[in-house]
């Protein structure tokens, strides 16, 4: 058996088994990605609410934002230590307060009015999709392995597709050369 045939057979085995094992990770990334794309129509997240038109200089102070956000009675939110981050969105004039439990509260930056207290699972979906929910070990080991494996699967697929075409072309050329 020639080297090229052995390489082809090895490529088929590697492609089949790595694809089968890694399909779990590919499906996880694909499903969470689709949920992120369609999270508003599916009701997983609210559309972005906008605050009253005002300049950033008219925004309420940060300590007031913190006290408003922590007084909403959300589960496992009691103090400033429970806040993960506070984002200011100038185009909407909204403070988006994100908590450690992946919940969020949008607050009008000029009036301090809470725009929605509905559960927003978008942060949770994002952390699932990018792997940070499971920790850095998952992000830098499993997702790296998944990405590199996808590249390997692509190349082995190209090889498995192209090798038989190449062999057929060579056989036709050899047959033509024998006729002449």
What characteristics describe this protein?
elongated; 3 strands; 180 residues; 3-stranded antiparallel β-sheet; mainly alpha
Question: Can I get a quick summary?
Answer:
This protein is mostly helical.
Description:
This protein has 180 residues and is mainly alpha-helical. 54% of the residues lie in helices and 10% in strands. The protein contains four helices and three strands. It has helices at residues 3-37, 62-70, 122-130, 136-179, and strands spanning 83-89, 94-99, 104-108. Strands 1-2-3 form a three-stranded antiparallel β-sheet, covered by helices on one side. β1 and β2 (94-99) form a beta hairpin. α1 runs antiparallel to α3 (122-130) and α1 (3-37) packs across α4. It starts with a helix and ends with a helix.
Write the layout of secondary structure elements.
Layout (H helix, E strand, L loop, with lengths): L2 H35 L24 H9 L12 E7 L4 E6 L4 E5 L13 H9 L5 H44 L1
Antiparallel strand pairs: 1-2, 2-3
């Amino acid at each position: 058996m020639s080297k090229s045939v052995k390489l082809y057979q090895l490529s088929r085995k590697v492609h089949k088994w790595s694809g089968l094992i890694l399909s779990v990770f590919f499906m996880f990334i694909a499903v969470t990605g689709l949920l992120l794309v369609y999270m508003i129509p599916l009701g997983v997240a609210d559309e972005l609410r906008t605050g009253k038109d005002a300049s950033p200089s008219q925004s309420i102070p940060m300590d007031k934002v913190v006290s408003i956000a922590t007084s909403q009675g959300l589960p496992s939110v009691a103090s400033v230590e429970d806040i993960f981050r506070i984002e200011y969105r100038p185009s909407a004039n909204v403070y988006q307060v994100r908590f450690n439990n992946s919940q969020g509260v949008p607050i009008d930056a000029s009036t301090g009015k809470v725009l929605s207290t509905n559960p927003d699972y978008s942060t949770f979906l994002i952390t699932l999709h990018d792997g940070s929910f499971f920790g850095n070990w998952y992000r830098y080991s499993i997702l790296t392995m998944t990405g590199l494996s996808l590249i390997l699967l692509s190349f082995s697929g190209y090889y498995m597709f192209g090798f038989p075409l190449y062999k057929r072309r060579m056989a036709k050329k050899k047959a033509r050369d024998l006729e002449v």
